[in-house]
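note to self — DONT lose this again. spent like an hour looking for the file last time. sequence + predicted structure for the chain T wanted, 437 res
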Amino acid sequence: MRFGIFYEHQLPRPWHEGDELRLFQHALDQVELADRLGIDNAWEVEHHFLEEYSHSSAPEVFLAACSQRTKNIRLGHGITLMPPNYNHPARVAERIATLDLVSNGRVEWGTGESSAQLELGGYRVPVEEKRSQWQEAVEQCANMLAMDPYPGFDGQYFSMPCRNVVPKPVQRPHPPLWVACSNRETIKLAARLGIGALTFAFVDPAEAKQWVDDYYRIFKEECVPIGHAVNPNICMVSSFSVHRDVAEARRRGLDGFRFFGYALGHHYGFGEHTPGRTDIWRAFEKAKEAAGPDAPGAGGEGGIGTPEQLRNHLRGFQESGVDQVSFIQQGGRNKHEHICEALELFAHEVMPEFKEKEAERVKKKAEELAPYVEKAMKRKTFMKPLADGEIPKVIALGRQVAERMRAQGQEPPPPQRAGAAQWAEAQRKVEKAEKAQ
């Protein structure tokens, strides 16, 4: 099984000068440490306006910084918001490819649509259209990454003419594609579309087994890939705080995980938010006091405990067929030094047994799925590439203006850029000679 660390960049109130700077610098240090320890993935969300819960609105910038401080760890968008009002599909393709280049081919391309009104309303994404917008944008973005040139598209939610979207990624046809899954139905959707399931439901290993079985049954029988390649993988997100003393593990990590669950509920489920004014941490403390000792986390606290308890928790996921577990270690007011200590303890005392046969597991799984992948790719209808003669020419704006003025009997002004007039005259001579032939 593989392991990851997962970031929302939580910052509970009250806020002080330098808090955000410290938060991001600590996260970069943690990713660098995780890379040295042999942890496989670092995942970074994209959220907008979700105060205290997530201050991660530009994940591509954070992940690019991570790429320059690490060598091996995979850098995951967990996730990129795909409805075009958030991010035009061509801009997503450009950013994903660029990150893949600067990281030397280490990108995991996670996608999603959001269910938070602060985000959806802020970017004017209609709730009833967000899923269909996500699907249209993901398919076309994958086409942009894979095709040379992209033929253009006139869709329901966005349109653009033929362009060659550059740069192209290291990983061809595009980096592994994922979707955020918060319930069993989105797991099934991921399987039908042949993409990885990045799950945020905090299910226990027994329920995870049902999700995994659903995924692979549907993948084998129904998959029609949305991308140009499939990524049949399941990642479960888990709580995390490990210490040899169970009481200390809970003291260091439980409140942070509970705040994660409360803030998630505030923004997505039951909250009422006044931008710039609502104090979610204060509300959390009041709610925790009212709930007493049974205050809930985000759904599961199995990743909080001693190395042996964490080992048993992870074995359950391993036996369920989960490919990766990603830890939420930065939540609430969890301390940077405690996070680093827990990562080191996990890497030295728990992770090795799960890594021992990972290459063998991956090879066996790939061999088992190979015939189903072949069938899935045959079901896909690929976007038709343009023949060379069908690719439209785009005339430079300056030339359009000059030709229009000449047609009206006017002499266009000389180009302002040095040498431009000479190059334009040379180009006209070349074209005249080519036409004469």
